[in-house]
Specification:
Number of strands: 8
CATH superfamily of the largest domain: Alpha/Beta hydrolase fold, catalytic domain
Structural class: alpha/beta
Strand content: 5-15%
Number of domains: 2
CATH architecture of the largest domain: 3-Layer(aba) Sandwich
CATH class of the largest domain: Alpha Beta
Order of helices and strands: EEEHEHEHEHHHHHEHEHHHHHH
Radius of gyration: 22 Å
Shape: globular
Number of helices: 15
CATH topology of the largest domain: Rossmann fold
Helix content: 40-55%
Largest sheet: 8 strands, mixed
Distance between the termini: 80 Å
Strand order of the largest sheet: 1-2-4-3-5-6-7-8
Length: 369
């Protein structure tokens, strides 16, 4: 019997796994694996986008969200075994697999060791490489800091690298949600996972054996697993696709869920031939996507915020004497819900910054010797 909803529990490998199961019966299955150190709720926007057409399962890795840690030492192999155990418990023979960062490590391990259980692979902001010696050292320092200063210190340090710079202007609410997810994770789960990540094996040498459709997505400003890591995987996985998500860092599905979801829907829909019972749902999803595509306000707002960030950083880095004037300017992020008002205010703010800088350059020209 299938249970539909969120925070459902299944017994897997002598532990409890909390999961969400949404979407129509009989539809193709896609499983979403969250990254470190979050939980299944990071996939909420993707679940909303997919459930019209697909059966979507997102679950909490042991030690995260509502899944207890259990008694075993963490490892990527254990996490992959839990994934297969969950599929067995839910009587899912095959599924499409989507993992972000650590979720990608788990997905690659599962596809390598259980290739017959998957019919498509989506790798997001992840890498096939093992940790370098420098990476291992950083994880050990993080463990020490968690034990010494606590989880909030770790959360604040982590946020600095997770997001694209512009997200600290445009996505403050999302940053707060992400911090809350980290804060809700126990110090024990964090340190056990950091140790597991430091010991994980590379999977690059087996990528050429993957013979299912594969999509690789990466945030354009991802500092943790940058574009080069995504390109390396694409070069090794035959026929794989690569999409770069604009206005996003390491959490591309959260920072730019609109573009991420478009690429995800396009790919997973292409994996399956349209069956009659899915045509109606597919048409509805397409109409929603198309209606969003003709709305340019979101892109314009992102572009303006990017310009504002760039000129603000120029002032702070190259003309620190002007920094005091930044505080006297209007609020960067308008509270208006009307996109036209928001665009107007952002544009005025950008023009004010540009005028300030241009006036200063004219009055105080740089004299080259």
């Amino acid at each position: 019997m299938r249970y539909v909803g969120t925070n459902i529990e299944a017994t897997v490998n002598n532990n409890t796994i909390s999961y969400t199961d949404e979407g129509p019966d009989g539809a193709p299955v896609i499983i979403l694996i969250h990254c470190f150190p979050f939980n299944k709720s990071m996939w909420n926007k993707q679940i909303e986008a997919l459930i019209e057409k697909f059966r979507v399962i997102a679950y909490d890795i042991r030690g995260y969200g509502n899944s207890p840690a259990g008694t075993e030492d963490f490892s990527i192999e254990l996490f992959a075994d839990d994934l297969i155990g969950l599929m067995d418990a839910l009587k899912i023979e095959k599924a499409m697999l989507c993992g972000l960062s650590m979720g990608g490590y788990i997905a690659l391990n599962a596809v390598e060791n259980f290739p017959k259980r998957f019919n498509a692979l989506i790798l997001c902001d992840t890498t096939c490489m093992a940790d370098t010696s420098e990476g291992i050292k950083k994880r050990m320092i993080s463990i020490e800091n968690i034990e010494k200063y606590g989880v909030e210190y770790f959360a604040n340090e982590s946020l600095k690298n997770l997001f694209a710079p512009e997200s600290f202007i445009t996505n403050q609410e999302k940053i707060a949600v992400v911090k809350k997810m980290i804060m809700e994770t126990s110090a024990q789960s964090l340190t056990k996972t950091l140790l597991a990540l430091s010991k994980r094996k590379e999977t690059c040498n087996n990528l050429d054996k993957i013979n299912i459709p594969a999509l690789i997505m990466v945030g354009k400003e991802d500092k943790i697993t940058p574009l080069e890591a995504a390109q390396q995987m694409q070069n090794k996985i035959k026929g794989s696709l690569l999409n770069i998500i604009e206005h996003a860092g390491h959490l591309s599905n959260i920072e730019n869920s609109f573009e991420f979801n478009n690429q995800l829907l396009k790919f997973v829909s292409s994996v399956y031939q349209q069956s009659p019972q899915l045509i109606k749902r597919d048409r509805l999803v397409t109409e929603v996507i198309n209606s969003r595509k003709i709305t340019k306000d979101e892109k314009l707002i992102l572009d303006l915020n990017s310009k504002i960030l760039k000129i603000t950083m120029t002032i702070k880095d190259d003309y620190p004497e002007l920094s005091k004037y930044l505080d006297e300017m209007p609020v960067t992020i308008p509270s208006e819900k009307d996109p036209e008002v928001t665009l107007k205010l952002l544009n005025e703010y950008y023009e004010s910054l540009q005028a300030l800088l241009n006036k200063y350059k004219i009055e105080y020209p740089v004299i080259e010797e």
